[in-house]
Amino acid sequence: MSDFWRRFRRNRGAVVGLVILALVFAMAAFASVLFPGSPWDMATAPFVPPGEEGMLLGSDSLGRDVAAGIAHGARISLMVGAVSTVAALFIGVTLGAVAGYLGGWVDDAVMRFTEFFQTIPSFVFAILLVAIFTPTIGSVVFAIAVVSWPPVARVVRAEFLSLRSREFVQAAEVLGKSRIAIVVTDILPNAMSPIVVLSSLMVASAILLESALSFLGLGDPNLMTWGFLIGSGRSVIRIAWWMSVFPGLAIFVTVLALNLVGEGLSDALNPRLARQRGGAA
Amino acid sequence: MAFSRRGLMAAAASAPVLMRASDALAQGIAPRRGGTLQMMLTPEPPVLQIGVNQQGPTLAAAPKMFQGLVTFSPTLEPLPLLAKSWTTSPDGKEYVFSLQENVKWHDGQPFTADDVVFSIMKFHTELSPRARAIFTLIETCEAKDPLTVRIVLKQAFQPFMLMFDATAAAIVPKHLFDGRDYRTAPAVQHPIGTGPFKFTEWQRGNFVRMDRFDDYWKPGQPYLDTIIYRIIPDSQSRRLALESGQVLLSQASDIEPFDIPQLRQRPNLEVNIKGWEYFSPLSWVELNHRVKPLDDARVRRAMSMAIDRAFIVNRLWFGVGKPATGPVASTTRFFDADAKIAAFNVREANALLDAAGYPRKADGTRFTLKHIPLPYGEIWTRLSEYLRQAMRQIGIAFDLESTDAGSWARRVGNWEYETTINFVYQFGDPTLGVERTYVSTNIQKVTFTNTGGYSNPQVDALFLQARSAAAAADRQRAFSEVQKILVQEVPQIWLTELSFPTVHDKKVQNVITTGLGVSKSFDDVFIAG
Q1: A222–B399: do the CB atoms touch at under 8 Å?
Q2: What stretches pass through the bilayer (chain A) (predicted)?
Q3: A62 at B interface, C-beta within 8 A
Q4: A40, B385: Cβ pair inside 8 Å?
Q5: ipTM
Q6: Rounded Cα–Cα distance for residues B258 and B377 (Å)
Q7: Chain A within 8 Å of B380 (Cβ-Cβ)?
């Protein structure tokens, strides 16, 4: 573990990303303390510029506090990112493991199924799903999960294909372990590192996807999200730039942090790769 | 973003006609011949044949090409148009219209009384539900001679004249429609009317062009040579086009309310909020009375009292429009200023709900209602967000559901909603535009009927009385009484009297002169300087 941390720490960007991420988490956790009450409450006059009348980041077209919206929105964005990634991992890992371990026609069938999903542009597909199931937080998470599992399935399948013929797997088979036990206790732990790296990037793209949906007015209308803030600020950008800029920065910083952390995880989990990259640079 | 870029390009492609002019203009300036008036049309209508399409953009543009027998002043008095004069019999059943002489259709054919009879009895009666409801009261409609039309009603109907504006019953050419399918006749794609401007060109997604009709029946008019309606899909591009002088006039919902304060500051632009007296759109929170506890008048009254209408007008609509005081807009005939809904008072609203037996639960709410924001643009979503906060103050949780325009109309039409927002035109007279929302005989699975399902025999009787009375004083009595009942019962929670500002360059003269705003012929509009 300390070895892992040491390797992670060597990547400066990753450490910065982790700090930013911790701050975003703190902001989400303490949103109700920092900004008590609902972020939908009208706190002041509309279009108050940042820094005036106690509005740190200004107010929106209804006099709502943009800073409160960003803090409360952090919860939704992180929650959507985490839940939809878990759901996508569940689908992707299951299908990938089945395909990679069993091989043969099962592999073919699962991969054709996966490719079918991969051929549909993911954002358009997500819009379609949300529009069909009416925009609620559940349908948004569902849509993001449905469009983001195929890469997981492919990565997991590739890992399983290479691991299943290794000696330790053969040993387990000879010992008479059940297939499920082999998959879960022997192969999966050895395939974890690419999954961990991939999932940190998936959280980032899920946050982006949710923001894009909310921006288009396809978010849950009862939840304050970053995408909603930008979407509602778009048409008044000439009057109130702060309505779009600050939530945009929040998304940018968070997604960047997640990507940096993902990079760091990749370095820490694949020391050989990291050294090669270090050498090349 | 893609939209705005396309809009900018469309605006940039327009020839920069008439950009320079002196700003200082005195009123009552002598009309000047010539010039092109560029405006905008939002959204682009499917066709411009009035009657075949009755949506806002068509009603704004088509009266340049088509005319009614009359039009209306801001106080809703009839003004002569295709009818030079008219008489009404003392019992209110017979109307005789004398038509203007030397009126020609754009294809050169003469306009006669036969066209009027055809338009009323066949064209609009078949196409428009609104016209059908009124024109079925006609017993006979005949051309006494080529310039005289006589109409006899089965019973007296005082608001009858209000149906003869171009937006309600434009006169269309019989020789191009009779015997054909009105919706697919060739004239639908190339409108032929009697108006001051004739249809020239329509590049879909780009512009509609109309040119001066040289044989127009008013001598010396119209003053403008050309009218161009640009199609600019993005609201910020529309504002830019207006600010840069590429278009000289914006109407209806071309400009977002939050842009109005900035436009008021510009010395060359005039922001006019008049011209909506005939339509008088009234917005309200539409309640489905089949959903408990919305059938309880005390609940509805408490919800109404929890809403700060001045906030809605000042903060959301930036001062454009005014708070509603009841079911009839103040600009509609027979409005009774004494019948007023209870004032904004959150404390009393809470007390009313407590007394009515809807206590707050542990989480602070009394009950939850679903709410569908009106999908007609951002401002309506903001309104629903405000309402959710207002309802929270009295312990009612509003759960917002997003939907698109088609689903909204379907769900309201099928009574599949709990609460939503609606706004409805009043057409000058409560019998034409108010009655339909409250009488139990009009509970239908059709939008803009009594979809809420409110039913009160007394209200039914009073509206019927007002409908059939021949004298205005009798009608006023019935309408005053019904307004007093309705403000107590609050069947729908009226919010604001909407008005859509017309913003135009000050050198464009005579823009708003009637109660129909920009939905007029523009034969007297000119560009000074």
Answers
A1: yes
A2: 12-35, 76-102, 123-147, 195-218, 239-261
A3: yes
A4: yes
A5: 0.83
A6: 13
A7: no
Give the separation between CA B77 and CA B89, rounded to whole angstroms.
Answer: 18
Q: A275 pLDDT band (50/70/90 cuts)?
A: low
Per-residue confidence band for A272, with pLDDT thresholds at 50, 70 and 90: low
Distance from CA of A151 to the nearest CA of B (A): 30
Residue in A closest to B261 by C-alpha: A239
Evaluate if residue A93 carries a pLDDT over 70.
yes
Instruction: Please tell me whether residue B474 adopts helix, strand or coil conformation.
Output: helix
Within a 13 Å sphere around the CA of B383, how many CA atoms are in the beta-carbon half? Answer: 27
Q: Are strands B419-424 and B269-272 parallel, antiparallel or unpaired?
A: unpaired
pLDDT tens digits, B288-302: 999 989 999 999 999
Q: For an interface test with B, which of A130, A235, A236, A241 has the most B Cβ atoms less than 10 Å from its Cβ?
A: A235
A157-213: per-residue pLDDT in tens? 999 999 988 899 889 989 988 888 998 888 988 888 889 989 999 999 999 999 999
* Sheet order of strands, B282-287 included: B322-323, B493-497, B282-287, B419-424, B367-372, B396-400
CATH number of B70-177: 3.90.76.10
| pLDDT at A24 (0 to 100) | 95
Pick the CATH number of B8-63+195-275+501-527 from 3.30.980.10, 3.40.640.10, 3.40.190.10, 2.30.30.140: 3.40.190.10
- For the segment B439-460, what is each residue's pLDDT rounded down to a tens digit? 999 998 888 889 999 999 999 9
Domain positions in chain B are: 8-63+195-275+501-527, 70-177, 282-497
Per CB-CB distance under 8 Å, the chain B contacts of A221 are: 373, 381, 384, 400-402
β partners of residue B86: B97
Among B256, B262, B400, the residue with its CB nearest the CB of A235 is B256
Contact A221 B403 (CB under 8 A): no
* Cis-peptide into B222, omega within 30 deg: yes
pLDDT higher than threshold 80 for residue A61? yes
What is the CATH architecture of B282-497?
Roll (3.10)
